Amino acid sequence: MATEDVVGKSTGETAVTTIVNLAEEAKLAREGVKAPSDAILSVCKSLVAGGVAGGVSRTAVAPLERLKILLQVQNPLNIKYNGTIQGLKYIWRTEGFRGLFKGNGTNCARIIPNSAVKFFSYEQASSGILWLYRNQTGNEDAQLTPVLRLGAGACAGIIAMSATYPMDMVRGRITVQTEKSPYQYRGMFHALGTVYREEGFRALYKGWLPSVIGVIPYVGLNFAVYESLKEWLVLSKPFGLADDQELSVATKLACGAAAGTVGQTVAYPLDVIRRRMQMVGWKDAASVVRGDGRIKGPLEYSGMIDAFRKTVRHEGFGALYKGLVPNSVKVVPSIAIAFVTYEVVKDILGVEMKISE
In which ranges do the Solcar repeats occur (predicted)? Predict the structure, then answer.
């Protein structure tokens, strides 16, 4: 009998606890506050949406991405790639269809977590910055300004870049391998292990500083231009582009294209320097011209400023924009596809918060 009383009491307590928990969750839902499990699920969905956006957008423009890197690091006395169309045809002729997508697997392995972290970090950073801005101004209805969006985007870019930089570094080396170069790296993990073993841990972060500096205007402007342009279109409704506070997919793609064009134009020289610094220490990297006009192997750089100075001295200021044309052709659809894919996937997964909120 005592046992039955204990069981009955335990069952009753469990039922009461369950009812209380359900009541608390219902109260949180009414107040607009997510339960811990819902919050975790929302974070996971946001990360998934960001990852899918990155993978889809980069795969769509993988041939142009590879050509851009080849143009950035090629030997100026042995020009193989002198234009977008010619470069793509040369890769197709010498390496076939697979050559156009060489390094894309490694690129996706890097960009999927990078994109996931970047979009999620932007949401969190923009929320935090908006909270501080409202507290400082005393205006509870204040919204993010373009400058504040730039700051949130810069924070997101720095976090995402730092978290996945070693994968970007080895992806660059894998991408520049051609049919005539020794295939030193068999894949991303082999490359990571080889670089760490032969050159040390710090080699995995070669070019990190110009990358981070480049991320500030690049990712910052991407988010700032995209969100500000969307907001302006929704509020002003020019040419009937916005209807009921919602933009069409085509209009969002145009906003993303504009954002990508502005961001990559400002940050491109830093991307060239980053890529060249990543090649330092790799014996199979492309040779370049020394001051006496002879080819003596890859240049060594003591830092970002030194890399800028030597690049301009030996190859001219235009070298800082090598590969800009295929990069421009790549960036416009890539950024546009990434933003729109992110929002579409979040809609499919049922995530309430959008990056503009």
Answer: 41-128, 144-232, 247-348
Please enumerate in sequence order all residues whose Cβ is within 8 A of that of 328, keeping only pairs 6 or more positions apart, or say none.
261, 264, 265
Indicate the domain borders of the chain: 11-26+35-349
Q: Is the pLDDT of residue 324 over 90?
A: no
- Distant-in-sequence, close-in-space partners of 217: CB < 8 Å, separation ≥ 6: 154, 263, 266, 267
Q: How many CB atoms lie within 10 A of CB 197?
A: 9
Give me the pLDDT at residue 155, please: 93
Task: With cut-offs at 50, 70 and 90, classify the pLDDT of residue 233.
Answer: confident
pTM above 0.90, yes or no: no
């006395």: which residue's tokens? 77
- State the Cα–Cα distance between residues 36 and 50, nearest whole angstrom: 21
Q: Could you tell me which residue, 79 or 262, shows the higher pLDDT? A: 262
Angle at 11 between CA 8 and CA 12, to 5 degrees: 85
Is the pLDDT assigned to residue 345 strictly greater than 70?
Answer: yes
Distances (CA, A) of 334 to 26, 41, 60: 41, 27, 7
The answer on pLDDT for 256 being more than 50 is yes
CATH architecture for the domain at 11-26+35-349: Alpha/alpha barrel (1.50)
pLDDT of residue 164: 87
Residue 58 C-beta-side C-alpha neighbours within 13 Å? 22
Contact 129, 156 (CB under 8 A): no
d(CA 76, CA 82): 10
